[in-house]
Design goal:
By secondary structure, the chain is α+β, with helices and mostly antiparallel strands. It contains 6 helices and 7 strands, in the order H-E-E-E-H-H-E-H-H-E-H-E-E. The strands form 3 sheets. It has a 3-stranded antiparallel β-sheet, with helices on one face. Strands 3-6 form a two-stranded antiparallel ribbon.
Length: about 180
Amino acid sequence: MKAEAKKGPKDQLSRSALNRAIDSYNEEAQLFKAAETRFKQYKERYTKIIGMYFDKFSLDRYSFKKSEDEAIVVNRVQKSSIKFDADKLEQVLGKDVASQVIQKTYYVEDMEGLIEYLKACGVNGKVFKSFIRVEKSVDQDALDHLESCGAISMDDIEDCYELVQSKPYFTVKVGRGHAE
């Protein structure tokens, strides 16, 4: 059996200080969580009120003068993205133009089966393609370039994409100066 080291007053102070620090940290963490929960509730409520006002008056920006040299500016931010249907786009644009815009990635689903098949007989294209998975994606820059050159128009591809908008959010900034 090992002899236990005798605990001196310095060790007790260290443990006592550690215990107080841990307890204090835990209390602060609980206070922070409670404040964060309250803030999220306030933010949700005020975002709803601000959103209703912005919608009613078709606003994207609002500002007011808080004091002589301070203004508060609120902006509505709503991010959008475009989701393309590459198959529809390929049909609409035709092979030549689509090859400039659509990037294809091929995956071999069953390499062993493919190798076995190729060794056993002459290659039939349709059978060969059954082993391959193709993913298509649209090169937005190439599409924009073709549109700016007049090679295609947005009317040509109007049924080939979907505009996806995220939920709007608001930014609030306090600045020096006057409201707009």
